[in-house]
Amino acid sequence: MSTTLTAATWPVGANMLTFGNAAPDGTALIDASSQVWASQLRQVKELGVDQIDPTDAWLALAQLSDERIEEFRRVLDGEGMSLSSISITRNSVVDRGRGEENLRAAHRFLDIAPSFDVTVVNTGFMQDLTQQQRAATWFWLADGHVDDPALRDLAIERIRELGDHAARLGVQVSLEMYEDTYVGTADDAVAFLKDVDHASVGLNPDIGNLVRLHRDIEPWEDMFEKVLPHSNFWHIKNYTRDFDPATGAYATAPMPLKYGYVNYRKVIRRAVELGYTGPICCEHYGSDSLGVVAENVHYVRQVLTSALADPTVVKS
User: Fold this and answer.
1) CATH T-level topology, domain 12-234
2) What is the rounded radius of gyration, in angstroms, for the C-alpha atoms of the chain?
3) pLDDT of 3
4) Tens of pLDDT, residues 282-299
5) Is-contact 90 98, C-beta < 8 A?
6) Would you say residue 9 has pLDDT above 90?
7) How far is 203 from 124, CA to CA, in rounded Å?
8) Nearby residues of 253 by Cβ (< 8 Å), 6 or more positions away
């Protein structure tokens, strides 16, 4: 991606998770009328945001026919919007039941990306939520999938395969950090990326996935310092985080970027200083998540404006 990006032209999109993957009448979104797609996109546009990440948890583009892909493109153009990135969610390429199917879908996402001027396709190793996670107030309060060390070599092989495909298309693959996966800590993520050893594969430093956990974690400053130099895409979100040493109890909850535990003004400026130029996708869970995501998009652009104009922020 060009190093001449401005705060206004930087790809900063809204995640569409807030809408789920079904139309209001229960129809799967991939089968829904394009009017439903347009209505949801319009809600984002009305908040002053003109880029989205169509995560497959919203509209799985890889499952659409070529004709419906073109229909989606017309809707997107008609609403005056574009894609900042494409994210694959909970469809691990080493899922024991659906790994090969997920790998094929990831290849199709890569094929689709350039036609939307998308430079990065995000994937990861998180898998379906367990019953306990679905029943919890917040799904991260219950234990979920844990990656099998025996499949790590296969994971490396398949991500490298995606990297080869991405390189041929002139795009990149990003690996989303997520607890208990092969990229579940800063050190594990950097080690896995080193083993993949592919110029078209980088990291998604989604530290928010770790900050929300009710367990001990590495200080966020240290994690970002380790992973930002290897990052090519960014799911960005924030949480409160508290720990009571007297009882051993943790408390976390989703918060807008500027109010949570991580100081994202500091982190974004540091990312710019290190030469980060990847797309950014703003996320939030709970409440009016779309409204908060829009606030986050505007916050990110303000911080980028400040960072890019500051001569003391050295751009590597």
Assistant:
1) TIM Barrel (3.20.20)
2) 19
3) 53
4) 999 999 999 999 999 999
5) no
6) yes
7) 10
8) 138, 239, 240, 286
